[in-house]
Amino acid sequence: MKKLLHIFTLFLIFAFTAPALAEHHSVKNAGTAASAHPEATKAGFEILQAGGSATDAAMAMMLALTVVEPQSSGIGGGGFFLHHDAQSGWMQTIDGREKAPAAAGSARFLDSNGEPLGRRAAVPGGISVGVPGNMRLMEMAHQKWGKLPWEKIFEPAIRLAENGYAVSAPQYDWIKRLGPLWKDFPQIAELYWKDGAPIPRGTMIKNPELASLLRDLQKGGADAFYTGETAEAIKNAVAAAPKNPALITDDDLGNYRAILRRPVCNSYRTYKICGMGPPSSGATTVLQILGMIEKYDMGELYKKEPVRAWHVIGEAMRLAYADREKYLGDQDFVAVPVAGLIDKSYLAKRSGLIALQTARPQLPGTEQYPAGSPPGAQIRTAALSSEVSGTTHFTAVDGEGNIANMTSTVEGPFGSQLIARGMVLNNELTDFTFAPVKDGAPVANRVQPGKRPLSSMSPTIVYNAHGKPILALGSAGGKRIIMHVTKTLIGVLDYDLPLDKAMAMPNIFFGGSGLLLENGSTLVKHKDDLARMGHLVVTTNLPSKLAGAQKTEKGWVGAVDPRSFGEAVSELP
């Protein structure tokens, strides 16, 4: 059940899940696993109990989520992976973000008049599909940090695909909402609709075609995804799409590589916070927000004047996102001033734009929350990118203290709505900014062949003053991911809340010139106070799917967002 910590004994798990491996492994403390779906969490914990590493467990969760949460993530998409090595103390990150195929030029999302398409026109079908990256990511991660055989990691996902899993409430809601669209996409409708109606909650779904694909990958490795039958299925699904048919070639698939990237880290008070670099905007934007509020004693401010604390967070958010829209993109294609964006002196200047008593005024002819000029920045034009919340996050910590922290996605709910061998194909290319040029200047996140679209995915690991990891987390939520992670970090590091309580704090975001507050949350009672400070306040639904783990006196303890269907399982020493 949600928010409950499950303590499992080693002998019970061995008896029921891994008897064959019990003779070969002696594990005193299996660790913890947390994800947005109980079946995925069980898969990860099963692998930990079998003697697997945190990486093995995370990859088992990624595969299981392909089966049970196809509306959010899977091997038909991509992700970002953070790994902390307990022995060396090093943190490394893998970029498994999807890439634009060679046929994806700058006009891909423009209509016949040269105007940007609407999302409803661009998302469904072939033009939105990027070359998936998760299998190459898995391959690299397993080669570097895996302990169990590659084949073993697939077993839980294959069982779920062959034996079935129960449709969750969140999945049912998306199936029901997307039904009208699926009239043009019979393959996906065949999986999730029966007799003209969405499959009811609790119904067992089997996906034998996906099970066959997983068995091929189990035997043939990642190459079996990017070549042969699976590659043909991907190419054909995109080329024969009922809407927006497009081209992905053998070269597009065969040349895809996951990339080992340098983590982006910065200090916040006595802590070091690390995350993923571009094409993720997560770490830079999270660190910018924290850097701008660092001069305030947020814990004391929250106790005495919580409305002021939320105001400060909201102002820093708007300023940081302004920089995000202007400067962030795939660093292999554009010069991203990462060091300048998180430079302490620059952030102090940006923080100086925040008034403790009032929101920034909207003056005629000026931007209310302008982008700044960070050191090393080139001339850019701000242009909004677009992301929606079809994403998931999962965390694993093994008994040795290794941490695997991954955010994975197919972008929108059920991605492009296309199916290849039972898996959902992503619509990640709609994370690019549709207009390639604005005000005569190139947009950093414009579409280009071979480029990875900008992402808000924000897998994060926090280290204490002694350099020891104390927190790992991430979330779903599209562009809101950054704020879900940031408010949770503030909750733990500034307000001294346990991770699950920090996740439960109200969500906050912005839309247009409005400050968005989560419906039904305690933050809503401050609506009038914030309005009197000059904010245009709107209450709305702001769902999130945070998952992660926290180091406690008893050991690592997993946690999940109370808004989600997720579950955390931990075994303490």
Summarize the structure in words:
With 573 residues, the chain is α+β, with helices and mostly antiparallel strands. The chain folds into two domains: 33-258 and 412-438, no CATH class; 261-386 and 459-548 and 556-560, Serum Albumin, Chain A, Domain 1, CATH 1.10.246.130. It contains 22 helices and 25 strands. The strands form seven sheets. The chain has an eight-stranded mixed β-sheet, with helices on one face. The protein starts with 5 loop residues before the first strand and ends with a strand.
Mass-distribution shape: globular
Task: State the helical fraction.
Answer: 25-40%
Mean pLDDT: 93
Question: Largest sheet, described in full?
Answer: 8 strands, mixed
How many domains make up the 3D coordinates?
Answer: 2
Radius of gyration from the alpha-carbon trace, in angstroms: 22 Å
Strand composition percent: 15-25%
Give the uncertain stretches in residue-range form.
1-28
The separation of the N and C termini measures 22 Å
Tell me the total number of β-strands.
Answer: 25
Content-based structural category: alpha+beta
Number of helices: 22
- For the largest sheet, list the strands in their spatial order: 1-25-2-12-13-3-4-9
